[in-house]
Every structure is written in structure tokens, then in C-alpha cells.
Amino acid sequence: MSTTSTRPKAPTRASRATARHVDRSYPLWFYVPGGLVYLILFIVPTIMSFYFAFTRWTLFKATFIGFDNFVLFFNEPGLIGSLRNTLVYGVLTSVSKVVLGMLLAVVLSSPLIARGYLRSVTFFPVLVSSVGVGLTFQVLLDPFHGPVNAVWSAITGADGPRWLTDPKLALYSVVGIDVWKGVGLATLIYIAGIAAIPNEYFEAARVDGASSWQIFRNVILPLSFPATSTVIILSLIGGLRSFDLIWSTTQGGPGFASDVIASVIYKQYQAGFYGLSTAGNVVLFLVVTAIVYPLSRWLNSREAVL
Amino acid sequence: MNTMRRSSRWLAGLSGIIITTVLFLVPFAFVFTMAAKDENEASMLQFSWPTHFQLWDNVVAVFQARDYMLVIAFINSTILTVASVTLLVILGAMIGFVLDRRVSKLNPLINTLVLAGLIIPPAVVPTIWVMQSTGLFKTLPGLILVEVAFGLAFTVLTMRAFIATIPKEIDEAAIVDGAGPLRLFFQVIFPLLRSVIITIVVVQSIFVFNDFQNPLYFLPGDANATVQLTLFNYMSQQRTSYNLLFTNILVITVPMLIMYIFFQRQIVAGMTSGAVKG
Fold first, then answer.
1. Of A233, A263, B91, B206, which has the fewest CB atoms closer than 10 Å, so is most exposed?
2. DSSP state of B121
3. From residue B77, how far is each of A186, B96, B156, B212, B219 by CA, in Å?
4. What is the CATH code for A84-259?
């Protein structure tokens, strides 16, 4: 369908005229307004972070101190723990969203009663702000009076777990809340992915007498791969950078039990350690890029094979 | 066999409805009932229907609290959302347009920058440093520009993909008719972008309106707080009146739910782009 007017390949007068019309009709200055905002408020700070991370910094005066900030970051248990928590948080939310999103999407793609209702209901939490979700769950999961533990006690007879205040549990509780909030988006992406699979595949499978499981395993799973890679990348980027939800549920606590890099950046900023905070930012940058970039390359190459 | 299959399907549907309702709708119902209770009843944190239904009183109280702080916050959040999304759409479309139509040596560089913008977490304190030296720190215009900078990569990507589907013959016809670049873009191309613009407006509005991290860093202070900041501060200051806390949550969630009802299709289209390729 690409019927762009047949342009001669040799540099004739006509092609030079076309080049001029391209120059004139699609001027490069269209890049300038957006590019300027992006350059000043995103690129410059990103580049400068690689300098300020090596300084003791008061915003007015920066003293170069070499790797001290990073040495501190990797030796302080509270700080290095945040690196581990970030990885746990990113991987767990991403994997859960892939599995649950896929499962829900398969169910919601089959002819069900009240399908539209179910699709809307699972998507609602995506529209609520993380702060709203965080505060709501703080109350829902209240260890002594919250409705969740009221149900827990009624069933088991014992006291419920201290979801957000037990150091062993806090991070996983926040992961659970994050999955609750985000699984609707993953489901939606999978529903679109499954809907894009040509019907012939399902018909052929049915003619061959494939069971529902075989259809899922051999048709839906491989052919919705683009959806899977979108969900993985999106939720990994979101999960590794996550701040809003953690800050509005546990604020990284109890102690440092649920601190992630993003919350450490904020705490150090609040405490006035701007250099250390920026070092945290650089660590986060390296973690996200080192995981997401090769992973997306790999997923794309797999997609091309399919 | 057939009836068994049908009844099992019916059963699956029913259990699906029950499970998803409990999991996803009960928290919303909890917010709603809490928002309608009086202070004493709400403090028991029970999931029950309020004995005195006083939702409206609570809504009024929440808006009046601390000298109409929430009203100011709503105004700020609205300005922030409308301004940053408008800028995003126009600037993003201009970049996407030239990026698609004109192959230049800049293209690989710009593609890299777009990819970087999708992946890289913003460097917080250096951004504050830049904003302070340009006088943008702690100002609403500053926060607007920050939201534009952070949302631009996604917008350019979406715009470019859509503009690639608009035939170049349309441009050429306009150029032959003597349209300059500004008229070509704003009068010929821009109106054709309607559907993708709606998608971007809806998706970015949800992001910006619900954003907590960027206002927290770049627009601190009570004077020009956004709704999310007000809600968070409310929680840390008044732990006692749970009914008003939940009224606050309800009040700032409703705009997005209304948006969803009106723009369901566009939200779905915007959020699933990328899932379907080829």
C-alpha cells in the first residue's frame, strides 16, 4: 500500500526539488519546543546525576568525594537491603501480573455471563491513585480492627498476621496490593492480545479435537507472546521504579524492611544528603537499564522468530 | 455431556463473578461505606452499612477542611492536568510528525532518546537543581513542564505509530495547494489525529492526575498542593477521622471513574497498544 510517489534514485533536479520540499514541509524546528523541555528537565538532570553522585552536595556547592556515596550505599544494611527489595518487588509483581493477567484474560475471553461487568470490575483499581489504594489498604489490613483480619479470625479463630507491620511480611503485602491494583491492566493487554489471534487457529484446533488445555497451551500461550512481552516490560519498569504505593502504605518500614531504592532516594533527599540520594538514583538507573534493556531486546528477537 | 458442560460453564461464570466481586469490588464498597459514616462508627473500621448515612455532610466537611484546601487542590490538579496534557499532545504530535515524515541523520538519535525516556527513572535531585537555577522549582508551571518531559517519550511513540498510517498523499495534496509547514500540520494533519489524541489525553490525564511522586518532589508546600498530596498529608495529620479520610479518597477517585465510563474504548485502545503487533 505504500504508494509514495515514485521518486527517481539518481540525484536529478526532480529529486533535489523533493528534498527541498521535504525540508520545507517537515521543518526540523518542530523538534525544538518539545525537545527543549525534554533536554532541560530530563536529559540534563540524568547526565548531571553521574557527576553529583560522586559529590557531597548541598545544591549550591558540590565537593567531589569519589566513590564514597556508593561505598556507603553498598555497606549500609538499610541501603543495600533496598536494592534486594527493589529486585524482589519488581520480579514478583511482574511475574504475578503475567500469570494472573493471563489467567483472568483467558477466563474473560470465553463466553461468560456478565463478561462486560467482570472486565470493568477488574480494571477499576487501575484508575485509582496509588495514594488512594495505599491508604485504603492500610485500613483494610489493620492488624487489630481491619476487615481482612476480622474475616481471618472468624475463619481460623487465631489472630491475623500483621500484614504491613511485620518486617518479614511487609514487602510481600505491598507486592500483593500492587498486583491487586495493576492486574487489571495486564488482563486488558492480554485480552487484546488474545482477541488478535486469528479465529482459524481456534477452529483448526477444535476440528483436530484439541482439549481446552491443549488450545491454551498450543494456541493462546504462544500466539499471545507480544502481549506477554508488553506486560513483562511494562510491569518491570513500573515495579523497579515503584514509589507511590510503598510510600503510602509502609513508608519503607517497619525499619528498612520494605525500603526500595526509590524510597531511599526520597529519604536521603529529605535528610539533605543530596549526593547520596543521587547515588541511589544512579544505582536505580543501572539496575533498571541492566535488566530492562537486554530483556526487551531478547523478547523482541523471540517475537520476530514467532 | 452437553448439559454438564453448560452447567459447569455457568458455574465457572458464577464463581468468577463472586470471586472478582469480593476481590475487586469490596474494597470500593468499603471506601464508600466508610465515607458515609459518622466519626465514631468509622473509627471501628468495620465493613458494614452506616447506621447514619451522612455522605453529603462528610463531602461538605472534607471540602471545607483547612480553609477549603481541597478546593484549591482540585483547581491546582485540574490546571496541572489540562496544561501538561495539552502541551504533551501538541509537542508530541509535532515531533512524531516530523520523525515519521522526514528521514534525517537525527532519526537514530531521537529514537534512542525516546527509548531512554521510556526506561530511565528520572534523576530527582538533579532535576530540582535544574529547576532551581531556572526559577521553576516549587511552581506550578515547573511541575507542568516536568510532567511534559516525563510523558513525552510515550506520547511521541504513540503519535508516530499513528501518523505512519496517514497516507503521505494527503500531505502532498496540501503542499501542492501551497500550504506551509504550520498550515500543513495544524490544519491538515492535526485534525486527522483525533482518535489518537483522545487516547493520549485520557491515558495521560489518569497518570498526571493520580501522580504523587512528582508533586511531592517538585511542588512541595501547602499553598499549591495537588489532590494526591492533600490526601497524603490529610492521612498523616488526622488519623482519627477515618470517615473524612475515606470521603477524601472517594472524592478524588470519582473524576477518573467518570472518565472511564465516558472513554472506556479509548482507554482500552491506549493502554493495549503494543500488545497487538503486525
1. A233
2. P
3. 27, 27, 24, 11, 12
4. 1.10.3720.10
Residues in A closer than 8 angstroms to B13, CB to CB, are: 112-114
Amino acid, res. B255: P
Q: What's the Rg (C-alpha) of chain B? A: 24
Residue A71 is placed in which grid cell?
561505598
Q: Does A48 touch chain B (CB under 8 A)?
A: yes
Question: Do A139 and A146 contact (CB within 8 A), yes or no?
Answer: yes
Phi, psi of A9 (to 5 degrees): -85, -35
8 A C-beta contact, residue A86 and residue A284: yes
Cα–Cα distance, A112 to A215 (Å, whole number)? 18
Residue A76 grid coordinates:
549500609
Q: Which triple of cell numbers denotes residue B134? A: 531556572
Q: Does B216 touch chain A (CB under 8 A)?
A: yes
Q: Which residue from B61, B13, B96, B80 is spatially nearest to B229, judged by alpha carbons?
A: B80
Residue A253, Cβ density class (10 Å: 0-12 exposed, 13-18 middle, ≥19 buried)? middle
Between A58 and B144, the more confident residue is B144
| Cis? peptide before A254, omega within 30° of 0 | yes
Q: Is residue A267 within 8 Å of A252, Cβ to Cβ?
A: yes
Q: How much is the mean pLDDT over chain B?
A: 87
User: What is the residue whose three cell numbers read 530492562?
Assistant: A292
Which is nearest to A175 in space by CA: A183, A118, B29?
Answer: A183
Chain A residues 166-195 with a CB less than 8 Å from chain B: 180, 184-185, 188-193
pLDDT the model gives residue A3? 42
Find residue A64's DSSP bridge partners: A55
Alpha helix positions (H), B51-139: 55-101, 106-119, 124-133
Angle, alpha carbons B127-B132-B134 (nearest 5°): 100
Domains of chain B: 67-272 (1.10.3720.10)
Q: Read off the DSSP letter of residue A198.
A: -
* Chain B residues touching residue A292 (CB < 8 angstroms): 119
Helix axes A170-195, B242-272, angle to 10 degrees: 30
Nearest by CB to residue A288, choosing from B119, B257, B272, is: B119
Kindly report, residue by residue over B101-141, the tens digit of the pLDDT: 988 888 999 999 999 999 999 999 999 999 999 999 989 99
A9: buried, middle or exposed (CB in 10 Å: 19+, 13-18, 0-12)? exposed
Which of A:49-78 have CB within 8 Å of B? 49, 52, 57, 59
B212·A41 Cβ contact <8 A:
no
The residues in B 68-87 lying below 8 A from A, measured between CB atoms, are 87
Closest-CA residue to A287 (of B80, B134, B120, B179): B120
